[in-house]
Amino acid sequence: METIWFCLVAILIAGYVIFDGFDLGVGAIHMFVGRTEKEREAIISTVGPVWDGNEVWLIAGGGTLYFAFPSLYASSFSGFYLALMIVLWLLILRGIALEFRNHIHDEIWKPLWDVVFAWSSGLLALVFGVALGNVVRGVPIDANGYFFLPLWTDLRPGAQPGVLDWYTLLIGITSLAALSMHGALWLVLKSDGEIRRRASQWVRRAWPAVVLLGVLITVASFAMQPHLAAQYSSHPWGCVFPILAVAGLAGIFFYHRAGREIHAFLSSCAYLAGMLLSVVFGLYPIVLPSNADPTRSLTIHNAAAPEYGLRIGLWWFIPGMILVAGYFLFAYRHQAGKVKVS
Amino acid sequence: MRYDLSMDSALAVHRLHFAFTITFHYLFPQLTMGLALLIFVLRTIALRRNDEHYRAAAQFWTRIFGINFAIGVVTGIPMEFQFGTNWAGFARAAGGVIGQTLAMEGVYSFFLESTFLGLMVYGEKRLGPRLHWFASMMVFLGSWISGFFIIATDAWMQHPVGYRLGPNGEIVLDSFAQLLSNPWIPWQYLHNMIASVVTAGFVVAALGAFYVLKGNYPQFGRTFVKTGVIAGAIGTVLMIFPTGDRQGKLVTDHQPVTLAAMEGHFETMRGAPIALVGQPDMEKMELDNPILIPRVLSFLTYQHWSAEVKGLKDFPRDQWPDNIPLLYYSYHVMVGLGTILVALMALAAFFLWRGTLYANRPLLWALMLAFPFPYIATTAGWMTAEMGRQPWLIYGLMRTADGVSPRVSAGNGLFTLIGFMGLYTLLGMLFLYLVHREVDRGPAREAH
User: Fold this and answer.
1) Which residue from B269, B283, B265 is spatially nearest to B327, judged by alpha carbons?
2) pLDDT of residue B445
3) Which of A50, A89, A313 sits opposite B423 (nearest CB)?
4) Given this model, what pLDDT does residue A6 score?
5) CB atoms inside a 10 Å sphere around CB A330
6) How confident is the model over B401-421, as a mean pLDDT?
7) Which of A77, A88, A142 sits opposite B88 (nearest CB)?
8) How far is CA A318 from each of CA A314, A324, B429, rounded to the nearest angstrom?
9) What mean pLDDT value characterizes chain B?
């Protein structure tokens, strides 16, 4: 039962990365891809009606984590306190930038919110990667199962790490590069003309960087977290996840060159899901490693809610998520097609 | 229980952190939920009569709704996060129970609401009138479902049911059915949702009165006044009876010490009087300068003029809510304003029925200026409920002091609290500025 919920939470987080990932990617690059106010408005209209629904994946993922793994929720959210508060502030700024930008047609108002949208999205893409890096590296969990991480210490992932060190920053930069490419592929799919041309150029330039960073973080992660190697060698079938990521990367390259927009975008979804699930699978059954004393690591067994609640949860979760799939199909079908620069 | 100074201040900071962020947040959903219903009604009328005027009216309020909803969304995420960041002890102990209702809110309400809001705000031309009407119904449903799960969560903290204690004292969910059929839920839910309709009614009526008095959009002004007064008149009555009354009964039965504190009732007595005004004096253990009506508290509580009502002094000190004066004032502000609101709406409804409301300038002025009061009354009502729950985080089960994050210090909490205060001040100013522009440009403007 714990394993089922572990998978479901992983799916919700993957849903967040795929859906809100393109909003964040679009935000991070929209000032480069859109040069005029009208172009930027067209770019923003590709995410305007959907970003809020996409962000709900984070809220639903958080809520599900809270109910299925309360100890993990308590320990990690209070331990990453400062970093999470910064995430909240950035999410607030990103949301109001998107919602308020088009209310006033003015030479100061719109560029102001464009800058806020760009920086908040870019920083969120970076910080979510940093967060994932922290989960792989591990944190100094105390005897009661809690910890408190400063934002940074000496930027080295030693015994007293901070939220930021060279390893977590590396993951953060990878995340920024990958999500910006994801956002660019979304824009290729949703736009025409100059916007599409510049977005396409962004994909071509970002792709080699993503590949290079992918190699670097793979090496660094196996060095950082010995559990990964142990897990993959004892459960070799888990290699489907890294293979999915590599296939996604290859798909992006070939489909993008062939001009098959939707296939290229879906390949990017597969790549992001593959990367995330590779990490999640590699850590299983650990959900938050302790960086010093391995017996203090939080696992699905010591962090999960009792059996009855998890079992009953499936009864509402599965029908609920089928409904969600229905809403998303409905909404995306009604937003289908390319936007025009007015 | 006594704590050393540093723990005590961390506890105070975390409480203030939650109190500030939830109070600011709830200024927005309380309008959203009620307004979603009113917009849905306006759209239904527009669709059935094929009426352009009502369509434009609904469209105007949808724009206000959109601005309001955006602030509600961005200030809502911190609420869920804070259970983990600031209240880790509580999250760990009770996450398996109330995590259920919070996760259900995400899955069953937020996806629905946000998906259809995107369609409702952006897609009138693409969707056509029928589907657009459907989208507005879905947004209304989504926001009311969201309210249900939040109330179910709070109801469990007020009156825990469906759980047992594990071998190490952990709280284990025992019955999902009991969690969702908690007797605390129905009245609290209705009381809260109707209060939200009252807020929306007052806001819509206030803007209508403004337009009528100013004379710039008299047609729309009258429609808004009518819509707001009808919703407000029905809502204010239902808010007091039966929902408020029944909510009070639940407190009487399950939280008698809270009742005594709310009423400022220190001595156990038969035929207890009710205090209309007066200030709780915690040193002398009495009300200073009270105006009392004899026997009414006994009657309201037990329907019997000489029933005995237990006073604060007969409850152990460690069961007392920890800020009795503030609790007392919140409760009295809620009840006092509620009475004024029902009177004002009854008067307006009477003149509306007689057909002379739009010419009654003093009453229109009163309606225009009254819209802050339902916000204050609702805030005071929630303060009453949550401070009345103290010193418990989960009533009778877990103390508030045991729920905080053990590793997050007072200084870190203060830093982020001040950060939120700054950011929310900015949000508040942006909100007022954008709403002011919409009000200024008026309802007749075509949708962009």
Assistant:
1) B265
2) 55
3) A89
4) 94
5) 16
6) 94
7) A77
8) 6, 10, 41
9) 92
Task: Please answer yes or no on whether A85 and B419 come within 8 Å at the CB atom.
Answer: yes
Short-list B287, B268, B265, CA closest to B277: B287
Does A85 score more than 70 pLDDT? yes
Q: What is the mean pLDDT of residues A297-314?
A: 91
* B68/A contact by beta carbon, under 8 A: no
CB B399 within 8 A of CB B393: yes
Nearest Cα neighbor of B58 from B207, B184, B286, B220 is B220
d(CA A327, CA B241): 38
Residue B404 has, within 13 A of its CA and on its CB side, a CA count of 20
CA quadruple A331, A336, A340, A341: dihedral sign: positive
Phi–psi pair at B339, nearest 5 degrees: -65, -45
Report DSSP state, residue B320.
S
- In angstroms, the CA B226 to CA A12 distance is 45
Residues 224-283 of B with CB under 8 A from A: none
Task: Kindly state whether B171 is in contact with chain A, defined as any CB-CB distance less than 8 angstroms.
Answer: no
SS (H, E, C) chain B: CCCCHHHHHHHHHHHHHHHHHHHHHHCCHHHHHHHHHHHHHHHHHHHHHCCHHHHHHHHHHHHHHHHHHHHHHHHHHHHHHHHHHCCHHHHHHHHHHHHHHHHHHHHHHHHHHHHHHHHHHHCHHHHHHHHHHHHHHHHHHHHHHHHHHHHHHHHHHHCCCCEEECCCCCEEECCHHHHHCCCHHHHHHHHHHHHHHHHHHHHHHHHHHHHHHHCCCHHHHHHHHHHHHHHHHHHHHHHHHHHHHHHHHHHHHHCHHHHHHHHCCCCCEECCCEEEEEEEECCCCEEEEEEEECCHHHHHHHCCCCCEECCHHHCCHHHCCCCHHHHHHHHHHHHHHHHHHHHHHHHHHHHHHHCCHHHCHHHHHHHHHCCHHHHHHHHHHHHHHHHHHCCEEECCCEEHHHCCCCCCCHHHHHHHHHHHHHHHHHHHHHHHHHHHHHHHHCCCCCCC
* Token couple for B102: 């919070």
pLDDT value of residue B5? 39
Mean pLDDT over the full length of chain A: 93
Residue B447 has a pLDDT of 40
B128: nearest CA in chain A? A334
* Residue B132 confidence (pLDDT) above 70: yes
What percent of the residues of chain B are helix, what percent strand, and what percent coil, each to the nearest 5? 75, 5, 20
Residue B2: predicted pLDDT? 41
Whether the per-residue pLDDT at B7 is higher than 90: the answer is no
Per-residue 3-state assignment (H helix, E strand, C coil) for A3-21: HHHHHHHHHHHHHHHHHHH
